[in-house]
Design brief:
This protein is of the alpha/beta class and about 400 residues long. It has two domains: about 120 residues, Nucleotidyltransferase, domain 5 (2-Layer Sandwich); about 210 residues, 2-Layer Sandwich (Nucleotidyltransferase, domain 5). Strands 3-2-1-4-6-5 form a six-stranded mixed β-sheet, sandwiched between helices. A six-stranded mixed β-sheet has the order 9-8-7-10-12-11, with helices on both faces. A hairpin with a 4-residue loop joins strand 1 and strand 2. The longest helix has 25 residues. The structure holds adenosine-5'-diphosphate. The site of adenosine-5'-diphosphate has 11 residues, from helix 11 and helix 13. Adenosine-5'-diphosphate (ADP) binds next to helix 11 and helix 13.
Length: about 400
């Protein structure tokens, strides 16, 4: 089964082609992408021509599905066929995810025109949060705001779901891993009566960062809110911010709303704090050379991460596995050490040598005797989308 995963940015189109064997194992056959895309139809043609030239897909008939990692839709979530309803749901929330929803709506439309007959599947990033208790999703806003859609949705669902599944495997809870695998087809499958709860805190630290609390494979809350401008400081987007800041800077700095929005999404986050850049490598390099704002950006990130880990430690009543994933989480042992520092009494303690040695690969970094197992699990969101696309198609 050949599954193409389409990753659509506001000006980019990246793809990966996976082949699944009968046992469900996936091989990556090809990957590629184009920058400065203005015509998604042409980008799709170019992609198919590349796959044809590589001998992987002779024609659209050799493609068994296309998966999209859609962000959030109005009144729609889950892993579903990418049809008119998906496009309408993405359009309904284009204001909340302006960099993500319009390219996906357009890209799905173009794929439908270009590849009629090839099933398209949308995996919403919000899908993993379908079972979060309502109290953890609601803001204290007037009812009309809530009815208009103002609530916490959560993002990075593909990544956190992968962590939920993989961490369950790593701690030997195959029952929970199986429940996670089937979540979008079967819903909340019951676990064996009397099974011990499995409490996982998943830290996805990348260009965007979020922390999700997971009980028995199911998200119970997350740091991301209505939009991806929330939670931890992001690369160049503000994280959590008091809503009063917006009218305040409009009035005192004389900024129009559109400019405030632009600055919050382009000039905030680690970039705004550090003044150096939005990439963790540049910020770390500057901090190492004594740049005080770069050091502060790291400290704010660490503080925010500890804040959210603390929230889920309490909400879960403890933590059996703490997981770091994505570009920052996988490659920065000193950030992991700083985030876990002084938490021995709470059961979290790292083995310094194991932590230092582990970059960009899966492994365990728990100190001997510590109660909470700490893992690094590399993110592979495209593979998650491909797997969910296969499950969705097989479930009919
Ligand atoms: P996204 O997919 O959201 O763009 P990634 O998961 O690729 O993001 O993470 C990007 C972040 O990871 C950047 O801030 C980058 O500096 C950091 N990162 C990636 N590789 C490394 C590395 N080898 N060492 C340190 N930081 C890294």
């Amino acid at each position: 089964m050949n599954i193409l995963v389409a990753n659509l940015g506001s000006t980019s189109f990246k793809f990966r082609l996976f082949r699944f064997d009968g046992a469900g194992a996936a091989a990556l056959l090809a990957k590629g992408g184009y920058e400065r895309v203005t015509d998604y139809g042409k980008a799709i043609d170019d992609c198919l021509a590349e796959l044809q030239a590589g001998g992987h897909v002779r024609s659209a008939a050799d493609l068994h599905g296309v998966g999209f990692k859609t962000v959030l839709g109005r009144n729609l979530t889950g892993c579903v066929r990418a049809d008119e309803k998906v496009i309408a749901a993405l359009d309904g929330f284009r204001e909340i995810a302006p960099a993500h929803n319009p390219p996906y709506a357009l890209g799905i439309q173009r794929f439908r025109e270009k590849l009629p007959g090839v099933p398209l599947v949308a995996l919403f990033e919000t899908a993993f949060y379908q079972w979060v208790p309502e109290a953890a999703t609601r803001y204290a806003v007037p009812q009309a705001w809530y009815e208009a859609g103002v609530r916490r949705y959560g993002f990075h669902g593909a990544s956190h779901k992968f962590v939920a599944e993989r961490s369950a495997e790593l701690v030997g809870r195959t029952d929970v891993a199986e429940r996670v695998r089937r979540l979008y087809q079967a819903g909340l499958a019951p676990l064996a009566a009397g099974a011990k709860p499995l409490r996982v805190i998943s830290c996805h630290f990348g260009g965007s960062s979020s922390i999700t609390g997971i009980r028995d494979g199911v998200a119970i809350g997350t740091s991301m809110g209505l939009s991806p401008q929330s939670g931890l400081p992001q690369n160049n987007r503000v994280g959590d911010l008091d809503s009063a800041a917006v009218p305040f800077v409009m009035k005192t700095l004389g900024l129009p709303l559109a400019e405030v929005e632009r600055q919050m999404t382009k000039e905030g986050g680690l970039l705004g704090l550090s003044g150096v850049g939005n990439d963790m490598r540049d910020i770390r390099a500057a901090a190492a050379q004594g740049n005080a704002r770069a050091r502060l950006a790291l400290d704010v990130f660490i503080h925010s991460a500890r804040h959210w880990i603390g929230a889920f430690l309490v909400e879960l009543g403890g933590c059996d596995a703490l997981v770091f994933t994505a570009g920052i989480g996988e490659n920065n042992p000193d950030l992991r050490a700083a985030i876990c520092g002084g938490l021995g009494d709470l059961g979290i303690s790292l083995d310094p040598a194991k932590n230092e040695a582990l970059r960009g690969a899966e492994g365990e970094i728990t100190a001997a005797g510590a109660r909470t197992r700490v893992f690094v699990i590399p993110a592979n969101e495209e593979l998650v989308v491909a797997r969910e696309t296969v499950r969705c198609l097989q479930a009919g």
